[in-house]
Specification:
Blueprint: H1 2-8, H2 11-14, H3 21-25, H4 42-67, H5 82-90, H6 97-107, H7 111-124, H8 129-155, H9 158-161, H10 177-196, H11 206-225, H12 229-254, H13 258-295, H14 300-333, H15 347-352, H16 356-366
Helix pairs in contact: 4-8, 4-10, 6-7, 8-10, 8-12, 10-11, 10-12, 12-13, 13-14
């Protein structure tokens, strides 16, 4: 274990040339440098945030949902059937036509009845709009509060106005209490998301978001350990800028304020593009790649840190493309789509069970394209933000 620890904390990887851990171990009285042990305090705080969230959703978000008349929908439960339940839990939740025909013969049921059973069974495991509203309201509240705190803190910080201050006197920069609270609060929140993801709404992007939260925690922890907190605080603030707007748009969508939802989504998209495609590359990456090279020079963890930030920029480009595509479809069709990653299945599958005549009648009543202004999307309400 000692050999493994020595290999992991190799000074030649983590620190600039001619700097050792001993140089940072005993600062002057009243001076504090970041230490890896500080990160452990985020774990109990994450549990505290999770507990606060439970109270918030029950006593604040819940009553707000009631005021907005967002009630828990009562979906029809599938009738108990041991054969279908076994298929559902161990084989597939969405059987293809071959499986449906086989089950139809085995149970002596009509194929459409088997389809209906699987749809009702899937809907049993899906959350109500009220549940999603409460979850989004919690995220909106945290994102807004941490964004306000970050702006207020950085407004008084010299590196907000001159990014070269991120590298002056590096790595001997003093850890202020404000910067410590900012970092540990962000880290604790993402740890709480890791915990709560197993009790939250089960979305189709569960694995993607799990990896995202893990990558975010790793990047925050990495920048803390090698004292890149100043530039790290800028990265966090840039990402926090648009996150609360996305959650606000989702809240408006769940409350059926469609115009407000569309407006918030447009504002979110504009700020997302501005922060992720302009400010991040021309302000953040400029200082991490070029200004830091001039002031402190490259070393192994510097290369890794910049590589991770460049990967993040690639993701920004991909997400921006997806948002732009959704916005374009919204303009063409009339309004922004709902979040369909965990919605209750209804009309689309019911229409597959209709006769051609019934489907034609339904489509004509909705309009020429049968979408009633909606279009399907998995992406607009996903937080990649908080990347």
């Amino acid at each position: 274990m000692a050999a493994l620890s020595a290999w992991f904390w190799n000074e030649r990887f983590w620190l600039p040339h001619n700097v050792t851990w001993a140089d940072l171990a005993d600062p002057a009285p009243g001076v504090e440098h970041p230490k890896a042990g500080h990160l452990l305090s985020a774990l109990p705080l994450a549990l505290g945030i999770f507990a606060v969230r439970i109270v918030f959703e029950r006593y604040i978000a819940g009553p707000c949902a009631s005021i907005l008349q967002i009630q828990t929908e009562l979906s029809r439960r599938a009738q108990p059937n041991a054969v279908l339940e076994k298929v559902f839990t161990s084989i597939t939740k969405s059987p293809d036509s071959r499986h449906l025909e086989g089950l139809s013969k085995q149970l002596d049921w009509d194929v459409r009845k088997v389809q209906r059973w699987f749809r009702q069974r899937r809907n049993q495991d899906k959350p109500s709009i009220r549940t999603k509203f409460c979850e989004s309201m919690w995220r909106f509240t945290f994102y807004l509060c941490i964004f306000i705190y970050g702006i207020c803190f950085l407004w008084q910080s010299p590196w907000m106005w001159d990014t070269r201050h991120c590298w002056y006197n590096y790595p001997y920069q003093v850890l202020s209490s404000g910067l410590y609270y900012y970092y540990i609060s962000e880290l604790s929140f993402y740890w709480s998301l890791m915990f709560s993801q197993f009790t939250d709404i089960k979305r189709k992007d569960f694995l993607i978001m799990f990896v995202h939260h893990l990558a975010t925690i790793s990047l925050i922890s990495f920048s803390y350990v090698n004292n890149m907190l100043r530039v790290g605080s800028l990265v966090m603030c840039v990402h926090d800028t648009s996150d609360f707007l996305l959650e606000a748009a989702k809240l408006a969508n769940y409350a059926k304020y469609q115009r407000l939802c569309d407006f918030l989504f447009v504002v979110f998209g504009m700020i997302f593009f501005g922060t992720r495609l302009i400010i991040y590359p021309f302000w953040i990456l400029n200082t991490t790649l070029f200004e830091s090279w001039e002031i402190i020079g490259p070393y192994p963890s510097w290369w890794l840190f910049n590589f991770l930030l460049l990967v993040l920029q690639v993701l920004h480009i991909i997400w921006s493309y997806l948002i732009a595509r959704i916005a374009l479809k919204a303009i063409m069709r009339g309004k922004v789509s709902k979040d369909d990653r965990s919605d209750i299945e209804s009309s689309s599958e019911e229409e597959t069970e209709m006769t051609p005549k019934e489907r034609l009648k339904t489509a004509s009543s909705r309009g020429e394209n049968g979408t009633n202004g909606h279009f399907g999307s998995k992406h607009w309400s996903q937080n990649h933000n908080n990347w």
